[in-house]
Design a protein that fits this description.
Helix content of chain B: over 70%
Number of helices of chain B: 13
Strand content of chain A: under 5%
Largest sheet of chain B: none
Order of helices and strands of chain B: HHHHHHHHHHHHH
Distance between the termini of chain A: 38 Å
Radius of gyration of chain B: 24 Å
Largest interface: A-B, 95 and 99 residues
Oligomer: heterodimer
Chain lengths: 280, 298
C-alpha cells in the first residue's frame, strides 16, 4: 500500500506524540529514582541527573541494613504471599467451577451472581470482613488477605476460565469419557493441557489483580506485619519521607513484576482479557 | 436415565462447592450483614453490644444528606469524564496502531506499560509530578513558556479532581485501546479496499466499517470500566485523600470516612448499600449487554 509523504509524516508524528505522552511519566519516575535529592529540589528543574545514583535501590533491597529497607522487603514479601496465594486458591477452586459452568451446564444464575459480587464495590463488604477478622484475631496478616482477595480474584478467574473453556473443542473429552475417565481425571489430563494458554493468562491476571489491590489491605493491616506494597507506598508518599527519589524507587520496584509479566505475556494477556470481557 | 441425570446434577454441585464455600464466607455473608447493619444504630467501637433496630431511619438520613449527594455527583463526574476520555483516546490510539508502520510491535508493547503500573504507584507518581514546588508538570509548563508561575494542581479545589481524572485516564486508556485493537484486527482488509474503490471518505469508512466492527467489544469494556470507575477509591486516597475542601471526596471515600473516621457503622452501611444499589444497576446493564452480544446483537 502506498502512502503519500505527508501522510507518512503525520502518521509517525502521531505515533511519536502518543509514545511520548504515554512513556514520559514513567521515564520521569525512573529518573527521579536515580537523581540526587538536591537535584530533585532544584528550580528550574534539570531533566537529566548529573550522575546516576543507584544507592536508593541498594538501600531498599536491604544492602545497607537501614530501617526503611526492612519496610520495603516486608511489604514485598506480604504482597507476594497475598497475590500468589489468592491466585492459587482462585485457580484451584475456580477451574472446577468453570468446568461445571462450561461443560456441565452449571446454573447460569450462579455464574452471574459470582460475577456480580466481583463487580460490587469493596466498600460493600469491608465492614463485616473487618469485624470478622478482627474477632478472629487475624488482622495484620498477609494470609488473611489471601482469603479476602478471593472476593475478587475467585469470581474473576472462574469467569475467565469459563469463557476460555467454552471455545475449546469438546470431542476429545468425549473420547476420554468413553475410555472410562471420570470428570476430575478428564479435567486434569485432557482439558487442562489443552487450556494451557488460558491457564497462564488467568493465573497472571489473577496475580496482577491481587498485586494491585489497595483498599482491603489498607483497612485490614494497620501495622507492618501485614502491609502490602501498595499500602506501604501510600504510607511512604504521605509520611515522613522527604526524599522523593526514594518514593520513586519504591514505585519502580513495585511496578517491575507486573510490567515484566505484561511485556512478556502480552499476547496471552490481551487474548485472555478479550475473551473474558466479551463472552458470557 | 433419571439416576444418570441426578448423578450429573450432583456432580455440578460437587464441582462448584469449593468456590461457593469460599464466596459464602467472604462475600455473601458480609453482604447480608452490611444490609442488616444498615437498619441498626451500630457503632464500630461497640459492635458486640446490643444494637437497636432503627428501621429506615439511616436511609432517610442518607437520602437527605447533601454531603452524600455531593459525593455522588463528584463520583458521577469522575466516572463520566474518566471513561469518556479513555474511550476517545483509546479508540484513537487503537486505530493508529492498526495502521502498518515501522516499529509498530515495539510501540504496541510500550503502550501497555501504564496499564501494568499498580494503581497506587500511578497515583503516587502523578502526585510527585503535580507537586506545587518541585513537580515536573510545573517545571515543564514554565520552561515551555505555557505558564508564567507555578501552581498547586492538587491543592486547588477547582481543578484537583481534573488532575486525578488525568492520572486515571493515563493509566486506563491502554486497556480500551487493546480491546479495540483486537476487534479492529478481525475486520477483513477487503472491506476497506472495497470502500476506497467506491470513493468512501475517512468518516464514512469509520461509520460504516469500523464502528460496526468494534462497537460490541467497545461497549462491553466501556461499561466494565464505568462500573470500576464508580467505585474509585485508591487513586483518590493516594493523590488527595478526598481534599482539598472535599473536592475529590467520592462515594466510596465518603463511606470509608463514615466507617473508619466517624465510626458510624449503621449509617455508614446504609450509604454503602445505596452505593451498591447504583453499582448493581450498572452491573445489570453490563449483563444485558453481554447477553445481547452472545446472541449476535450489535
Amino acid at each position: 500500500m502506498h502512502r503519500s509523504f505527508l501522510h507518512t509524516c503525520c502518521l509517525y508524528a502521531a505515533v511519536l506524540l502518543i509514545a511520548v505522552v504515554t512513556l514520559a511519566p514513567l521515564a520521569w519516575l525512573v529518573i527521579m529514582s536515580v537523581m540526587s535529592p538536591r537535584e530533585l529540589l532544584a528550580v528550574p528543574l534539570n531533566w537529566l541527573p548529573e550522575h546516576w545514583d543507584w544507592s536508593r535501590y541498594a538501600q531498599l533491597l536491604g544492602m545497607n541494613g537501614d530501617i526503611a529497607d526492612n519496610l520495603f522487603l516486608h511489604a514485598l514479601r506480604n504482597s507476594l504471599i497475598a497475590a500468589s496465594g489468592s491466585a492459587f486458591i482462585a485457580l484451584l477452586t475456580g477451574i472446577p467451577a468453570a468446568y461445571a459452568f462450561s461443560r456441565r451446564n452449571g446454573p447460569r444464575a450462579i455464574l452471574f451472581l459470582m460475577l456480580a459480587t466481583f463487580m460490587m464495590p469493596p466498600i460493600t463488604y469491608i465492614l463485616p470482613l473487618y469485624t470478622m477478622f478482627s474477632g478472629l484475631g487475624m488482622l495484620n496478616s498477609p494470609f488473611t488477605l489471601i482469603a479476602v482477595y478471593c472476593t475478587m480474584v475467585l469470581p474473576f478467574a472462574t469467569w475467565l476460565m469459563k469463557s476460555n473453556l467454552d471455545v475449546l473443542p469438546v470431542e476429545v473429552e468425549h473420547a476420554a469419557v468413553v475410555e472410562g475417565a471420570g470428570t476430575l481425571r478428564t479435567l486434569w489430563s485432557v482439558v487442562l493441557p489443552m487450556a494451557k494458554p488460558a491457564l497462564v493468562a488467568t493465573a497472571m491476571l489473577s496475580f496482577l489483580l491481587a498485586w494491585d489491590e489497595f483498599f482491603y489491605s489498607l483497612i485490614l493491616n494497620s501495622d507492618l506485619r501485614g502491609k502490602t506494597l501498595p499500602v506501604a507506598i501510600a504510607d511512604f508518599a504521605a509520611g515522613r519521607v522527604t526524599d522523593y527519589g526514594l518514593i520513586a524507587a519504591v514505585g519502580v520496584l513495585a511496578s517491575l513484576p507486573p510490567t515484566l509479566l505484561a511485556v512478556f505475556f502480552q499476547k496471552h494477556l490481551v487474548h485472555g482479557l478479550a475473551a473474558g470481557g466479551v463472552k458470557g | 436415565m433419571i439416576m444418570e441425570s441426578w448423578r450429573r446434577k450432583r456432580e455440578v454441585w460437587v464441582l462448584l462447592a469449593p468456590a461457593l464455600a469460599i464466596l459464602a464466607v467472604v462475600t455473601f455473608t458480609p453482604l447480608l450483614r452490611t444490609l442488616w447493619l444498615s437498619f441498626t444504630n451500630a457503632e464500630i467501637t461497640a459492635l458486640d453490644q446490643a444494637v437497636e433496630w432503627v428501621g429506615f431511619e439511616n436511609y432517610i438520613w442518607a437520602l437527605t444528606d447533601p454531603d452524600f449527594r455531593d459525593a455522588l455527583w463528584r463520583t458521577l463526574y469522575f466516572t463520566i469524564m474518566s471513561v469518556g476520555l479513555e474511550t476517545v483516546f483509546g479508540v484513537a490510539v487503537a486505530m493508529l496502531l492498526n495502521v502498518e508502520f515501522k516499529g509498530r510491535a515495539l510501540v504496541r508493547t510500550l503502550i501497555i506499560l501504564p496499564w501494568a503500573v499498580p494503581t497506587i504507584v500511578n497515583a503516587m507518581m502523578w502526585r510527585l509530578i503535580f507537586h506545587p514546588d518541585y513537580g515536573s508538570f510545573n517545571a515543564a509548563l514554565t520552561q515551555l513558556g505555557i505558564t508564567e508561575s507555578y501552581r498547586s494542581w492538587l491543592g486547588d479545589p477547582g481543578i484537583a479532581m481534573n488532575m486525578v481524572i488525568l492520572a486515571d485516564v493515563w493509566k486506563n486508556y491502554p486497556l480500551i485501546a487493546f480491546v479495540v485493537l483486537a476487534a479492529l484486527q478481525t475486520i477483513p482488509r477487503e472491506l476497506f479496499d472495497a470502500a476506497r474503490v467506491e470513493g468512501a471518505g475517512a468518516w464514512h469508512q469509520f461509520r460504516s466499517i469500523i464502528m460496526p466492527g468494534i462497537i460490541g467489544p467497545l461497549l462491553v469494556i466501556v461499561i466494565l470500566r464505568t462500573i470500576e470507575a464508580f467505585r474509585v477509591f485508591d487513586i483518590v486516597y493516594a493523590m488527595t485523600r478526598g481534599g482539598p475542601a472535599d473536592s475529590t471526596k467520592t462515594a466510596s471515600f465518603f463511606v470509608y470516612q463514615e466507617y473508619f473516621a466517624y465510626l458510624r457503622s449503621g449509617s455508614g452501611a446504609s450509604y454503602a448499600v445505596l452505593v451498591a444499589v447504583i453499582s448493581a444497576l450498572m452491573i445489570a446493564v453490563y449483563f444485558n449487554m453481554i447477553r445481547r452480544q452472545n446472541q449476535g446483537g450489535y
